[in-house]
Amino acid sequence: MLEATPLTEGWILHHEGEALPASVPGCVHTDLLAAGVIPDPFLGLGETEVAWVGRREWTYETQLAATNGHEQTDLVFDGLDTAAEIRLDGRLLGRTRNMHRSYRFDVTGLGGRLSVRFGSAYAEAEAVRGKLGERPAAYAEPYQYIRKMACSFGWDWGPTLVTAGIWRPVRLERWSTARVARVRPLVTVEDGVGRVELHVDVERSRVEAELSVEATVGGVRARARIDGTRGVVRLDVPDVRLWWPRGYGEQPLYDVELTLLHEDRALDGWRRRIGFRTVELDRRPDAHGSGFTFVVNGERLFARGVNWIPDDVFPSRIGRDRYRERLRQAADAGVDLVRVWGGGIYESEDFYDACDEFGLLVWQDFPFACAAYPEEQPLRGEVEAEARENVVRLMPHPSLVLWNGNNENLWGFRDWGWEERLAGDSWGEGYYLGVLPRVVAELDPTRPYAAGSPWSGSWDRHPNDPAYGTHHSWEVWNREDYAEYRANVPRFVAEFGWQGPPAYATLRRALPGEKLASDSPGMLHHQKADDGNGKLERGLARHFAVPEGDFDRWHYLTQVNQARAVAAGIEHWRSHWPVCAGTVVWQLNDCWPVTSWAAIDGDGREKPLYHELRRVYADRLLTLQVRGSSLVLAAVNQSAEEWSGALTLRRMSVEGGVIGSSRVSFTAGRRSVADVGVPRELEPVGPKEFLVADADADGLRALYFPVPDLEVPYPRPEFEVEIVPGGIEVRAHTLVRDLLLQADRLDPAARAERGLVTLLPGERVTIGVRGWQTPDAEKARSALYCMETGR
Fold it and tell me: Is the pTM of this model over 0.90?
């Protein structure tokens, strides 16, 4: 039987004549940090102090013992970042230039000093650029000339920390006769019967040996012969339980076990978990253009999505527990789709395993983002090789529902001046409309492929046409008020978002000793977006008086504005289901402490946006929307059951008086939206009035203020705070708008279990708090923020 031995111990990293202890998997930055050679690049201005690391060559070494007892021994690297030369006792085993691939070298009978020398990714990229010529990109760094995680060269939310190292596991594999080289599982289901076709490739050391494979799944066993180096074993499993996205059903998973045999002797094995489900992407033309609707097991769904970036700029530090924590946070927020963005990586099995278990659909970008990518060698062969490997690697996961060719490159060619600058040079179109769809069609015909995001499906239309396919909405953040989200109804909003700063405790850790201000040196350094603070403040000024010299108030208001902006978009677009079939918020997470569009900051703390996602991504949502010249209440019901009941509508003054009220009935069918007209006499007028809609049986509420907060004469907020088991209780004596407990101000480990809440006079709310060691009502009051007149 094949034997695998991890090679994790005894590695060293050479630096300035010293042999530093090295962690494998790991990277140069983390090893230098552990040795005290460099400062933490996440703290203060530390990023600038370590820029030299990405420009150097680095060598890792360990001792490799020669082994016997098997016919072949392979040295296997699951990931090398990126331009590497591998030698054993001076003998060249091979060279690599792709972070997204694995590598295997024959070291049968060999031993000695194993050396992995990494060239600078800059040097590799610049050499390719010199050979193939300049190509335009959104950023000046040369990330499109090397098959490496693009965002390690910096992004508008990420630091420039260009990594190198053995970033995924390495091991020795010893085997005889034959081994399993690749298994490509095609999983389908029809009429309650699940079919698994396992297409098996083997590598032989003995050509003449008769081989077979045996597989089991769901109590069914089958066997097939290997002809040459290939075979197919088919299994039909009756009465399979379907795998569903979260909120639509359960996520049953089946173990598949395959054994490679020679004369009934096991040589090697392959084990994975699969799920039975069907997935389609409905892109048919209709009266509104052409849609982009996911259909799982015949059920059409509005995708409640988030964009995912690498959770650490040093991805070797992300393990199973961290993946599960972050993805559990996503699921708990009502998310049912995670888009793995194209400037990052193909994530590890731990990521997709967690998505399988939590019922999170995965939209997987191929790693191309915001740049024109050359299509000549040496890149073209690398692109196809990595695509073939990763398509097959990720195929077992039922959560994976879409392969997407790139992020924003088709749009960039049309709108960002690329076409003229390229003057006919290749830029990636051949990948997105040629190589990648061909690879997916050949290897994984069970899943849909999209050429890019955004993409309208044809060059006959603008790539970012909201009426066709996927749409990215960035004009709002860049130039407009978030009220403009309501100006159109895209078929599928694959990117949109609004910035907000991280939690206070995250800033205090990342900027030690700094007097915090919106424009302090550390705050500006941890703001990577072009004119990011300017856009933050212009967006703030449309709704609030921008506080001068009051960081705490600025911090609260910018976080509120972020939550309000994203909620405005989602509420509007969800209310237009099924014309709009999904929103994918930019973004769920951060890779370091930074002011960004994330709902969860770089220290894993949940911003107010996160809690707002829990509200607007819930199965049932009430939202007050303007339709033409009228105000309507949209009851959005994404649950499997009909939703009916009574609504109470109250036109109120900000002083707390009820100007008028009404009770109306409503019924929203399963997976549908019902509009309820608001009587004209209940529509609020002017800055002193607002409308409250409450669903009696569900405790859901919608609010509508006809003017920006800047114009609302909020009363001086009055409320009482009391410590109760598990948290605090707040009792309001006045209108208290957007009350927020910043629990991390009480204790860096503390978390509040809810975000923004608006209380009417006489109402109370309990806010659960975890991780607070010494509860105190006065301290709690000091960490509570809400709207005030003129602020």
Answer: yes
